[in-house]
Structure formats: structure tokens, C-alpha cells
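User: Hello, can you help with two protein structures?

Assistant: Certainly.
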Amino acid sequence: MTVDRPTIPFQPDKYVKFIGDQTVTRVTENGATWCFNPQPRVTCLPSRGVGRCATKRVSRSRPAARRVSMTTTTVPRTRDLAGRVDDLPWEALRADLDERGFAVTPRLLDAAECDRLAALFDTGRFRATIDMAQHRFGAGRYRYFDHPLPEAVHALRAAFYGRLAPIANAWSALLGGDPGAFPLEHDELIERCAAAGQTRPTPLILRYGPGDWNALHQDLYGDVFFPFQVVTVVAEPGADFDGGELVLVEQRPRAQSRAHVLRPPRGAFVIFPTRERPNAGRSGHHRVGMRHGVSTVTAGSRTAVGIIFHDAR
């Protein structure tokens, strides 16, 4: 894991309106209409050295900082994981990736599936365990799964890759690269990794307790890397833990950085860039570097599973 410091302290001062923990399709307040569902509370704010978290409700006397419209779809649980990934609203997800540089899926995993994944932190097979404080990556622990990967992790890795590879190739073309830079099958990417000496699996499980956090970083691991990765939080925000928002920071050329602060619902997946994304400018698209991290957990225990598609040296 490559870590860039310093990290950003988080002090909430603007919030996104959120009603309860269930779907609320339309709410009209002060002449404005809001659409909600159990999706992450997100705000995109310019950073002037201080990130801002979107974790509180807005009082009636104070309008929300930004309107957010999110899908109300939940993926049916009757299909296997690969089928559920295929059933995601990929047209809308791709539009979000192109416009914002990240996307959040509807809930893909149910509570029992999240519990089984969370239990792997204590029962799974791992090639390495990292104490973040020891390496000055933050605080908390993460563990890299060993081969063979858990069945659910393997299935999700292959299924998400198949859907993201065409988007990765389109992004490569926008940035002046090869429009066929990435193979359409995940096994072929793993073969490229092996040829470059990258043979260690990178999917991981992370656990944070009170006071733990993760510094802003990028997960590259070698010369061969895929431009997207995904993560799901398998603990319940607000019940199992407080704080611990996922933070994405854009390093915009000749401008201040911008922070996106997300609190995805349990079992949803956040899709975001590994290193950079294309951004439309006056004379075409340019590169915007992106790093990610986790804000301080203030209470409870936060467990997440990250799926990185390339292997490590």
C-alpha cells in the first residue's frame, strides 16, 4: 500500500438531508423537493485543508448544503452474486463514474451475507496482516486474503471486473491511451500481473475501532494496475459504529483539492478510481489524481471488504 500524507482532519459543518433508515421517495420542504433512499449521505465540497463530513440531519431552520438524488433500487437476493452484479443499474453507475469519478451501488449484500464476510476477519486465510499504526498508515488493522480467495470475494471480483473493464478502456481512450488497454476477462489481467511479477492477491478486509482511521492513499502494488476498485462496509453505520466515513480526495490541477465524503449503507459497494480519473476541460479531458481514506471512527467497530482487481508484487 502506497500512502501519501498528511491526511485531512474532518470537521463537519455542512450536511446532506437524510430521513430515517428506509426509503423516502419525495419530501418537499421550503419549496424544494428531495429524493431519498437508504444510500450514502454524500457531499462534494471544496477542500481548503479541512475535509467536511456529511453525517448529521439538517434542521428545518437550515437548508441542506446540496440536493442529492439517489436510486431507490435494491438488487433482488434470489440470484447468485455474479447475477446480482450484472443486475445493477450500470448505465446510471457509469454516468456517475464519468461525472463524479465514483459511484455507489444499491445494497447488493443482505445482512447475513455481510455477517459472513465480517466473520472472515477472524476465521479467514490470510497472506499478511498489517497494523496501520506501525507503518504510519493510520490506525486499525487490515488483512490480505490468501489463495484460494473466499468464494464470495472471488465471485465479486470477477463479476465487477467484467462490468468495469469496458469503462476502464473508455477512460483510457479519453486520456489519450489505448482504447483496448485492459482485457475484458479478469483471468487475463491476472496473467499480465503474473508476467510482471505480481502474484500476491490484494483483496482485503479492514477493521477499525474507536479512534482508528486510514490515511489518504492509492492502492497500486506494481506496474500493472486496474483503474477501478470497489469496497463494501459490512457493519451497520450508526448501529455498529459511528464516524468512519469513506473519503475520496481529488487533486485538481492548478486548483484546491476537493473532498467527497461518503457513508454508504451496509452491503452496498462504492466504485472509485485507483489512481486517477478523466475530467472534461476546455480542450478535452485531463487527468485528476484521486486518493482515498477513512475518517476517524468515533465509536464501535467498522469492518469493510475491499476488492482490488490487480495482484501485488
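That covers the first. Now for the second protein you mentioned:
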Amino acid sequence: MAAAKGALRIYLDTSVLLAMICPEPDTQGVLSWYRQSQQATLVSTPWIRTELSSALGIKRRTQQLSDAEVPLAWHAGQRILQTTVCEALVSADFDAAADFCAEHALKLRGPDALHLAAARRLGCTEIATLDELMSVAAVRLGLVALALK
């Protein structure tokens, strides 16, 4: 777990982590943001590792990454995650996520709702995500969605 840097706590979504380690349309913007965010405390949960593994598996199955590139990307992601404060998920996060999913106007999928529930409980005021629906929902839930595109 990384040491706390500043009072600003930014929740790191998997979409941003993936863009940091794999070629994506928004990679340059995300890397620029990451270099400039060093005074903030980046927050994650163990769920990001599951989603990262899934995303890398999809990239392999769709031939966006080779067999050799997948473990390199995984290890690069793990190195970045070591710079975050990784907080455990708790039962209340799952309950809040279910409530968010039940708010149909938010249009959230379960995994994104879980990220937002954790971000709110952990005192994050901002979320770093490339997911448009998640950004809109974050704002409706009182978070600042960073414009990384």
C-alpha cells in the first residue's frame, strides 16, 4: 500500500489503469494526467485486479495483445497499483452498489456501481474513469468525474 500523499483522494477506475498499460485511444491523455496527479492520493480496491485480469483476457482473446504481452501488461498494472492506497471492499459497498443499480436513471452496471460505492465510502471526491456512463453517474452521486479524454 502506498503512503498517503495529499488530502485529495481520487478513485482509480480500471478503464484508466488499462489505458496506462495498453495502447488505447486515450492513453496519452491518461498518462499526462497520471504524471500530474502525483500530489493526490490514488485509491483502489482489490476489485480492480479482477477487472484488469478480465480486460487483459478479452484483449488476448480478441488478438489485441499477444501471449507475451499479457503478462507484461499485468505486471505493469501491478506496479501502478502499488502506487495506490488499496482499500478493502466491505459488505456495505455491495449493498450501496445494489441500491445504485436499482436507480435506473443512473444506468449503472454492477461492477461500476461497486466502484462508485467504494469511492464514496472511502472519502474520494473525484473518480478517474474513461467510462461515460460511469462519469455521469458519479456526478449524480456527488463525485467529480475527471475529464481524461
